[in-house]
Specification:
The complex is a heterodimer of chains A (about 130) and B (about 280). Chain A has about 130 residues and is mostly helical. Helix content of chain A is about 55%, strand content about 0%. Chain A is built from seven helices and no strands. The termini of chain A are far apart. Chain B is globular. In chain B, helix 5 packs antiparallel against helix 6. Helices cover about 30% and strands about 25% of the residues of chain B. In chain B, the strands form three sheets. Chain B has a five-stranded antiparallel β-sheet, with helices on both faces. Chain B has a four-stranded mixed β-sheet with strand order 4-5-1-11. Chain B has a two-stranded antiparallel sheet with strand order 2-3. Chain B has one domain: Ribosomal Protein L22, Chain A (Alpha-Beta Complex), CATH 3.90.470. The chains are: A mainly alpha (about 130), B alpha+beta (about 280). Chains A and B meet through helix 5 and helix 6 of A and loops of B. Chain B: One of its GO terms (cellular component) is cytosol. Chain B: Pfam families: AASDHPPT_N, ACPS. Chain B: One of its GO terms (biological process) is lysine biosynthetic process via aminoadipic acid. Chain B: GO terms for molecular function: holo-[acyl-carrier-protein] synthase activity; magnesium ion binding.
């Protein structure tokens, strides 16, 4: 029960730390219980969670654009606005991502990006589309 | 002898001189309804937390001041796009709406009883690690060809930067007034002006007579823009919160043409004291 209570409390508080499905699998009581993997999570869709490498790269680019100190905790859940990005910063972040990943983000898609995870999801899709 | 309350306000706070201790900060935050506090705490940088707090204090103070409701009874919600509005507006102002903005040293709020209103404040700051021309070209797809030409032809790099920020600031004010998020499509909007007065907007290529715009210079580095216009142009999620979306043309013209007021400077102390 602890992990279920934990996830609902976390989803309300929107913690800085990303929730990782692996941590749920460690709960011995829930071993093999597929129901656990369908728990509502702060992320949009567990099965489409962005690759860790992508999330890490986005965090790096965002930190650079917003001139955040290295020790700042930035993860998938982090909202650009909460990291200090205004609309101009968001446009520049998206451009930085386009350059690094060699993709092109449409204005309409760019505008749905609110969190690091959103950006990473979009990047993964666009990169996969190119392959 | 009481003046009829117009519901129109233009308030500005200079936060550079507000340096609260953690206790003072928390005391100010405690004036707001509980659900607002986590939102403020999530901002990573202290200055952003300050701006977020003052922005909300302005919203609640304004509503308290105009509608005489205590802070904890004020119900400010946000649409899916993030536009804040007063829920259950029982005031005499059928379309009471407001817009806040913060940048640099300033946090501001504007309100109107009938027309939509939007505010944007920008700080004209030198870009880091790139020239003004390089910086501005990042945003070329958000500007129309005409605006782009005006910007690049503005003169010195500082002039180019300032010109860019004027156009950006105006677009933001409009988009915020109609309740849209960043998803509106800045390139659909084109601004025309005479020396930055008589500013008018073309939306999707058509001149709109139902919007007015003003640009203010707050100080050497900060600009503010105000957009005021027809409630019919609100996007659906925001339009639903308004009572009187269709206004008689004469009434709208009269509201649009009423003279624009200057900002009133408020201090954080004044905002917090108003609730005591």
């Amino acid at each position: 029960m602890a992990s279920i209570a934990g996830s609902s409390a976390l989803s309300f508080a929107r913690p800085v730390k990303a929730i990782n499905t692996n941590s749920l699998a460690f709960s011995p009581v829930r071993k093999g219980n597929t129901f656990l993997h369908l728990q509502p999570m702060p992320m949009r869709s567990v099965s489409c969670a962005a690759k860790k490498d992508t999330v890490d790269k986005v965090c790096e680019i965002v930190k650079k654009q917003l001139a955040l100190p290295d020790h700042t905790e930035v993860c998938g859940e982090s909202k650009f606005s909460e990291l200090g990005a205004d609309s101009l910063d968001t446009v520049e972040i998206v451009m930085g991502l386009e350059e690094h990943f060699d993709i092109s983000v449409e204005e309409s898609s760019a505008q749905t990006i609110a969190t690091v995870e959103d950006a990473a999801d979009l990047i993964d899709k666009l990169v996969a589309g190119k392959a | 002898m009481t003046e009829e309350e117009s519901g129109v306000r233009r308030w500005l706070v200079d936060i550079s001189s507000w340096r609260p201790s953690p206790d003072q900060f928390d005391a100010a935050a405690a004036l707001l309804p509980p659900h607002e506090r986590p939102a403020i705490a999530r901002f990573v940088k202290e200055d952003d937390r300050k701006r977020a707090l003052v922005s909300r204090l302005l919203q609640y103070s304004l509503v308290h001041h105009l509608l005489r409701i205590s802070f904890h009874q004020i119900n400010i919600r946000r649409t899916a796009e993030g536009k804040p509005y007063l829920q259950n507006n029982c005031s005499d102002f059928p379309n009471f709406n407001f817009s806040t903005s913060h940048q640099g040293d300033y946090v501001g709020i504007v309100s109107e009883p009938l027309c939509l209103v939007g505010l944007d404040i920008v700080s004209v700051s030198e870009p880091q690690g790139e020239t003004a021309a390089e910086f501005v070209s990042n945003f070329s797809s958000y500007l129309t060809d005409h605006e782009w030409n005006c910007i690049v032809g503005a003169g010195t790099p500082r002039d180019v930067l300032t010109e860019f920020y004027r156009y950006w600031c105006l677009k933001e004010a409009f988009v915020k007034a109609v309740g849209a998020g960043v998803g509106f499509g800045f390139r659909r909007l084109e601004f025309h002006h005479e020396g930055w007065t008589n500013i008018c907007i073309c939306i999707d290529g058509e001149v709109s007579k139902k919007w007015r715009f003003w640009l203010f210079k707050l100080d050497e580095t900060h600009l503010a823009s105000i957009a005021k216009g027809d409630p019919e142009d609100a996007i659906n999620t925001f339009k639903k919160t308004l009572s009187s979306v269709t206004i008689a043309e004469k009434q709208l013209s009269s509201a649009l043409d009423s003279p624009e007021e200057a900002f009133t400077l408020q201090t954080v102390e004044e905002l917090t004291q108003s609730q005591e």
